[in-house]
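for the recovery benchmark. tokens below, seq after
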């Protein structure tokens, strides 16, 4: 490890700083290296076999897998505080400010609905005695996350992976600068590098956005109840947060620029929006904020949002306690020195193009996870890609990450599970004449006694007629959609056909059995409404 710059390399072998270089020159070592042919000496000249930049799900998985094969591995992880000052521990977005706290707060909202349902099942309690404590919930969620942060550090230590809480930045070939939160710099070299820096929420770029608005990076550890909330955006992050906030009894409005859930099946997206509206979430469509002003300080305070219609013809104003921005995320690639080592990125998005083996245009630098161009931004995808990459690099394996037919779930109040093609994409790719869509509403048995939300849950499969009606798209709206989708995704990986689904005996009475009895096609226009389980 060198602690000063410049660091000199000859034939890709590290010599060191000024004094070491002068000494090597006097001893004739530099001349010998210049005369050396081949690179057999390279591997022993680095501090590490692999340095991973980013301690999220993918980076941690890759580092531990590489260490399993006896490699010397380092993980650099650093959280740049949000404009509101929020920071968190080791583990990345999913654990700290993503999937984990989101699912737990979604569960808190579902429990509120279950309380209401329980009256019809004979439970008796005073309505005024039931209330929700934001502080109790966030403390419990953060305590659990803290235990995960500690567990990751212990796991790295057990696997003999070196961890530094420092910001990693390339400064020269095979060389990285690590800067801790006190500004102390260290320099490390490695034979190979893995970029797993993920993404952070995007801001609007309008007056008052960073000063007064929060993002999902702040929400899950917010020390006070957000109160009346405006959620800006139509992404799954926007709708999930709006959903659980409304489920906790808050006044929630969603401001949408264009369509809901871009990239997802639009029929399913619109059904989600309709269900949320029916359950009290308000939508302001085709408007974007142009200014956010503070009216009152406080926890929460009061903000005024000035918004403009997307056609520019109308201006509206509204007052809220909290404004939550969920308008997309940006790859954390522009400040880590990629230009110094020649790694190409998409200049518009910041994403990194890679080969089918996650290799960048610089042979010794790889990338996984949300920073990849054209790949799914999902935690399990990053984990799988990281493990398989380490196996290929260090265990002689050949298996590559399969980015096709990856299941996912949007944890809106009415959960949405999907695997494979959306209906729009399937029609575009295969043609309407080659696609058969089977669909039906269904009514979960648990919802019949409370007599709520009949003909809101929905199941749809998309089949390729030319390929023996193979299922190429799977979509479900309903409770526990993730659990349902996970099982069917394995079957889809194995080439599931409609005939095989029809030949599968369902479990009664559960939601998933609807997929074993789908008989109405969209083409037929037949009735799909349900009156019972």
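predicted aa per position
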């Amino acid at each position: 490890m060198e602690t000063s710059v410049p660091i000199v390399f000859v034939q890709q072998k590290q010599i060191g700083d000024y004094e070491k270089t002068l000494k090597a020159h006097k001893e004739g070592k530099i001349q010998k290296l210049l005369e050396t042919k081949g690179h057999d000496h390279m591997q022993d000249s680095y501090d590490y076999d692999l340095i991973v930049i980013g301690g999220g799900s993918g980076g941690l998985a890759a580092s531990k897998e590489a260490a399993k094969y006896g490699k010397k591995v380092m993980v650099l992880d650093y959280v740049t505080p949000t404009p509101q000052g929020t920071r968190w521990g080791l583990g990345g977005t999913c654990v700290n400010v993503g999937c984990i706290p989101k699912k737990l707060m979604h569960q808190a909202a579902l429990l509120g609905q279950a309380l209401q349902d329980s009256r019809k099942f004979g439970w008796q309690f005073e309505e005024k005695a039931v209330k929700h404590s934001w502080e109790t919930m966030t403390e419990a969620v953060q305590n659990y996350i803290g235990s995960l942060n500690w567990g990751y550090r212990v796991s790295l230590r057990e696997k003999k992976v070196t961890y530094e809480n420092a910001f990693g930045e390339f400064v020269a070939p095979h060389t990285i600068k690590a800067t801790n939160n006190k500004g102390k710099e260290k320099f490390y070299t490695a034979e190979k590098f893995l970029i797993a820096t993920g993404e952070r929420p995007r801001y609007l770029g309008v007056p008052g956005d960073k000063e007064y608005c929060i993002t999902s990076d702040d929400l899950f550890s917010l020390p006070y109840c957000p109160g009346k909330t405006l959620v800006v955006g139509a992404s799954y992050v926007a709708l999930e947060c709006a959903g659980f906030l409304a489920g906790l009894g808050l006044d929630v409005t969603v401001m949408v620029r264009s369509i809901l859930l871009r990239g997802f099946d639009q029929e399913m997206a619109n059904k989600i929006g309709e269900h949320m509206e029916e359950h009290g979430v308000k939508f302001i469509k085709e408007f974007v904020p142009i200014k956010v002003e503070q009216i009152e300080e406080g926890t929460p305070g009061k903000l005024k949002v000035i918004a403009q219609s997307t056609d520019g013809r109308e201006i509206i104003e509204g007052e809220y306690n909290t404004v939550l921005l969920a308008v997309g995320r940006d790859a954390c690639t522009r400040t880590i020195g990629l230009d110094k080592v020649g790694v190409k990125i998409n200049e518009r998005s910041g994403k990194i193009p890679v080969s089918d083996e996650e290799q960048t245009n610089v042979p010794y630098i790889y990338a996984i996870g949300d920073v990849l161009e054209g790949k799914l931004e999902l935690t399990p995808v990053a984990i799988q890609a990281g493990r398989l990459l380490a196996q290929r690099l260090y265990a002689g394996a050949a298996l590559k990450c399969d980015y096709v037919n990856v299941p996912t779930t949007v944890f809106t109040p009415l959960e949405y599970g999907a695997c494979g093609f959306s209906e729009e994409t399937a029609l575009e790719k295969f043609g309407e004449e080659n696609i058969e869509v089977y669909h039906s509403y269904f009514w979960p048995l648990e919802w019949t006694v409370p007599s709520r939300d009949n003909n809101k849950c929905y199941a749809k499969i998309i089949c390729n007629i030319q390929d023996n009606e193979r299922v190429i798209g799977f979509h479900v709206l309903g409770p526990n959609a993730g659990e349902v989708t996970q099982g069917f995704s394995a079957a889809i990986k194995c080439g599931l056909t409609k005939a095989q689904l029809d030949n599968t005996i369902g479990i009664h009475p559960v939601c998933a059995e609807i997929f074993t009895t789908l008989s109405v096609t969209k083409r037929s226009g037949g009735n799909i409404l349900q009156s019972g389980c």
